Structure formats: C-alpha cells, structure tokens
Amino acid sequence: MLQQICIRIDRQKFAAPGMLVEILGGTMHVSRQGNGSPHVILEAGIAASTINWRPLQEQLASFTTTYSYDRAGFGWSLAESRGCTLANISEDLHSLLRSMQVPVPYILVGHSFAGYITRAYANRYPEEIAGLVLVDPLTPEEWLSPTSGQRWDLRGGIWFSRIGGVLAFLGVIRFCLWLLQRGNSGVPKGALALFGPTATQRVGRILSELLKLPPDAVRVIRARWSTPKFFWTMATYIKALPRCAAELGGRQFPAQIPVTVLSGSHQPPVRLAEHKAIAEHSVCGRHIIAEKSRHWIHLDQPELVVDAVKEMVQRFRSSAWEKRAHSPSTGERLQSKHGAESLHEKSRRA
Q1: pLDDT per residue over 49-68, tens digit each?
Q2: Which of 69, 79, 162, 168 is a plausible cystine mate for 173, CB 3.0–4.6 Å?
Q3: Neighbouring-strand partners of residue 259
Q4: Domain holding 114: CATH number?
C-alpha cells in the first residue's frame, strides 16, 4: 500500500518533462529542444531513457533541433505487449516521427544497444537518414552466437531484473535507494551481495555512471527505478539481445550514409576492429577512440559526440545549400536577385 502511494506521489512530483505522443503501439514520451535542421534523434541504451541524454541534448540544441524519447516501457512511455524486436522498435520510432511530422532526413545518434536500433532503422528507411553517430555501439558479432559465459550472464541479468521487479513492487528498491541517498550504503550493499559479486560489480558500475548526471536527473532516475515496470522491461530487453543481434547480422545500411563510430577506451581489440569495420563500410565514415572514456562516452567526453554531430549537421547544410544553389529555379532566383542589386547599385552611383 505504501509503495503504491509513493508511486502516485512520484507521478505528480516527476511528471513527464516532454510531450506524450499517441502512436499505433501506445503512448510515447518525447523531449524536443532547439531549432534548425537536420533534426537529430537521440536513441538511448538498453535500459536508459531521455534522462540519460539530458546534458548532451542541451548542448546539441544550441545549433539544431533535437529529440530524445523513451522506448515503450521505459521512462514515461507506456509498456506494450509486442515482442522486443528491432523491427518493432524501428516501427515505433518511425510511427513516432511520422506522427510528430519531423522533417526528413534525420541524424540518428545511438548509444550501446541503440547501435542495433539506429543501424536497423537506416537499413529499413535509408531515404530518411542524413547520418549516423554510434556511441560505443553493440555489434551483432558480440551477441550473435553467445558463449557459455555470455549465456550465463544473460540468464543472470534476466533473473536479477525479474527479482528487481518483485522487490520494487514490495518497496524494497525504493527503501534501499532512499538509504543510499542519505549516505547509508550498508543495508543496500548487503542486499545486493545476495545476488553475487557479478551483480554487485555491475550495479556499482551503473551507479557510478549515473552520478555523472545532474542531481535533479539522478532524483528522477531513482523514482523510475522504484517501479516494477522498469525492471520487467529491462528483463525483456536483456532476453532479446541474441535475437536482436541475429536480426541485424549480415544486414548493412547503404554505404552512402555518413557514419561516425565512437569507441570507449575499455573495448578489447576485437570490438575496436568491429567498430572500425562499421565506419569503413560508409564512403564517409570515421572511427574515433575516446581515450578518456569507457562505455558512457556522452557523459565522460560529451564534446566528442557534440563535435561528431555538428560535423554531420554542417555537411548536410552545405550540401543542401549546394543543391538549392544549382537547381534551375533557385539559380534563376539568385541571378534575378543579384541582377536587381546590380541595377540598384548602378542607379545609386548615377
């Protein structure tokens, strides 16, 4: 009962900061900032939401229009009964952008698992894409044929997420996060230790990354993590990793789409080689290793992501101007304009 009261209080206290958009698959939450084109779409990692993009989106919005959104089941978007597949996720994003009448083409920016989504979208709707920026992306090779160790990790992640959903329903997660906020880490660490050292290390690593976000964003994330929906949706995504890798495996986006791949410095040589291959597939591809970052490059070295997006925006704007300048109708307008200015200048001198 107390947990349900707290959830209702959180809904009022942490109302959706963006807009709620109805699509065929449900209700999606979207945050829009900035002006200008091409528009930039931010796609979050496997269990992340608009909150994780907040600091970077503010920087990108200084020079173009940006959108971040919550996939179904995360953040303020409603959960859905459809399976977690790249086809469904891409279709949801396509429906969302269509519903909002976002002008094409867009630049897609994807972190981690979102590397699957953005590449699948570019393969499915290539005419809508002005460029891809992949931030330490997952590759199909990583999960296409899981090793016994990876399968064990998947089972552990699914089990941990489902148990987390039960504990969130009972209010235990909320209580532990409340203790952590007040500097009491003994009880939360003791509870986490029951899940084993691997779970302890992973949660500790995630918490250390989240602390890089502004305090107000951390408070919102704490409220979202206190609900069963977050954990149950995360379990669905973890379980779908091999299936999503198989969906993307062997499929390539058109080579004419510009791509920049940013790799964390923690990645092993095999992952760096895969990231490099993604960039080299594009006729206009770049591969950058973020020497001072690990997996969350957009929090460790946001300037690298900003520069990559800005470079694509400037390339698009310059090419768009060239097309307009060389089109017959635009050329005639430019010539007429210069002619009128020339006549005005002559009359002024006379």
Answers
A1: 999 999 999 999 999 999 99
A2: 168
A3: 132, 285
A4: 3.40.50.1820
